[in-house]
Amino acid sequence: MATFKPRPKQAEVLAYTRGKMGVSAVPGSGKTKTLSALAAKLIAEELEDDEEVLIVTLVNSAVDNFARQIGAFVRERGLLPNVGYRVRTLHGLCNDIVRERPGLVGLADDFQIIDEREADTVLQDAALTWVKLHPEAASQFLAGDLEDNRRDWVTRERWTPLVTDIARAFVRQAKDERLTPDAIRHRLDAYRQPLPLAEMGYSIYVSYQRGLNMRGAVDFQDLIRLALLALELDDTYLARLRRRWRYVLEDEAQDSSRLQELIIRQLVGRDGNWVRVGDPNQSIYETFTTAKPEHLRDFLREPGVTPRELPNSGRSAVPIINLANHLIAWTMDKHPNADVRDRDPLQPPLIQPAPPGDPQPNPPAEHSKVVLYPAALPPVEEIRAVVDSVRQWLPAHPDQTAAILVPRNKRGFDIVDALKQAREPQIEYVELLRSTTSTREAAGAVGNILQYLSNPGDVRLLARVYQVWRRDDRDDDTLAARLENTVKALRKCPRVEDFVTPQLGRDWLADDEAIAKLIEADPDIGALLAEFREIVRRWQEAVILPIDQLILILAQDLFKSAADLAIAHSMAVLLAGYAESHPAARLPEYTEELAVIARNERRFLGVDDADRGFDPEAHKGKVTVATMHAAKGLEWDRVYLLSVNSYDFPSALPGDQFMSEKRFIREGLNLEAEALAQLIAVANDVPYSEGVATAAARVDYAAERLRLLYVGITRARRELVMTWNTGQQGDQQMAIPFAALQAYLEEKTP
Question: CA-CA distance, 457 to 517, in Å (whole number)?
Answer without folding.
Answer: 25
